Amino acid sequence: MSNLIVKTASAYEYPLLIKQLYLAPLANNPNQEIVYRDQLTLTYKTWQERVHRLANALAAIGVKEGNTVAVMDWDSHRYLEAYYAVPMMGAVLHTINVRLSPEQMIYTIEHAEDDVIICHADFIPLLESIKGRIQEGRKFILIDEGGEVVNQHFQFEGEYEKLLAEASPTYNFPDFDENTRATTFYTTGTTGLPKGVYFSHRQLVLHTLTTTAALAAPASQGRFHRDSVYMPITPMFHVHAWGVPYVATFLGTKQVYPGKYVPAMLLKLLTSHKVTFSHCVPTILNMLLKEPTSKEFDLSNWTCIIGGAALPKALAIEALKRGIDIFAGYGMSETCPILSLAQISVEEEGLTFEEQADIRCRTGYPVGLAQMRVVDAEGNDVPQDDKSSGEIVVRSPYLTQGYLKDHVHSEKLWEGGWMHTNDVAVVNSKGSIRITDRTKDVIKVGGEWLSSLEIEDVIAKHEGILEVAVIGCPDTNWGEVPLAIIVSKDTVQFEDREIIQIVKASVDNGVLPREAITLKVKRTDSIDKTSVGKINKVALRTRFL
Prior knowledge:
There is one protein chain. By secondary structure, the protein is of the alpha/beta class. It folds into three domains: 40-199, 3-Layer(aba) Sandwich (Rossmann fold); 200-395 and 419-438, ANL, N-terminal domain (Rossmann fold, 3-Layer(aba) Sandwich), CATH 3.40.50.12780; 443-544, 2-Layer Sandwich (GMP Synthetase, Chain A, domain 3). 30% of the residues lie in helices and 23% in strands. It contains 17 helices and 25 strands. The strands form six sheets. The chain has a seven-stranded mixed beta sheet with strand order 7-6-5-3-4-8-9. α1 (18-28) packs parallel to α9 (244-251), α2 packs across α6 and α7 crosses α9 (244-251). The model has no long low-confidence stretch (mean pLDDT 92).
């Protein structure tokens, strides 16, 4: 007798569609707030009505199942509306990275085959600069927040708010195959053209449920729940703002959207709305803590995941001293993105800040549905000694199945049936992972591998360092040596040899391998960043080598 489940003719199969996430808060918390800057406050009930209106407005201009709708906006309630309305119609949401170069933006618009672009007035000059270089036929919707709109070439179908006001407040979102593509966006790689990654409804729902469980699991530290107050400080065009807006909406949590990132506004919103949970890259947190008025704000009730780049221990300790519950998260554009979190146990909360930082800055433990291995060149798991290094490879039900229209890179990504991250890491006896570098950033000194991240972490502890990046510099004797590119604080004077002495002391203490003593130092006024705030080591190599 077969054990296969036989479906009753009238039974509802409940496909894992984004609309299932969307239905929860209306039943559970319809009067909870969604806030946009200091300009607008909605309830979930009125916000959900706006989602219906947006779907009707898009349908009225011809959007149908299979079309692609792109968005160019700051982090806002409108973006959250598009997160739901577009894929729930059966269309594909393309979140355009507004920080790409014009050439890259042209490529992504054409490659994604955008049919409609919803554009904030602030980005019209950007569109104007590429007018004539993107194909005709696509339609445009304007977001006008009351500023001066400079538009010479584009015919808009209408203004966003007016279109919603004229649209019906009810839309019948259909059921369809849960494996239907819901979103597309493009990696912010530092070489070559951006690569398109894509996710289905099923993948986004599974990522949401997995992340919800992972953030709710700890007894106290690193928690996100229904009574939290959420504000993203990761752009909503980047990996669905790490997927957390879907979690927040699913839970019916109060949400605060900051619009364009301005340190003073971010700090104001954090405190005035008593925000308890956010996520950002290290450079954003560093910017907030270095803001002249920062110390006037109480951040002691704030939990913040740091991802996108390694969390420096010096930054973690500084945040802990301010009362911030800070910890690292790990993932990639290709992984939806959350794979692991560096949450700590109740017992570990009693450790010193220095000891806690050692744990909070790790890559951490895999979340529920993510399988993560650290393997050697032959694909064997490395020993769990926190020393033996290998590449992180992963499996999960929510990983992109490939790159859009790019078979060659897709096959390389999934070589051997595991997704290859190109991140080099070690694993300790408890199973906690710690990334030591990107494969392309590891420095080979006299035949020995040296981690640029570990050297950066040591240098960042110097009181005069504002930012630091370490890259490999060609050397006739050693092949490569580490080059520390530093931005110093205006208020602290020091000589380069102090940095070299710090590194030497760490070598003497066994923190760094002896090859680190070959370090060289260069100063600069700024360190190149990618469009999402990560250190751009490719650009640094071009500038300094």
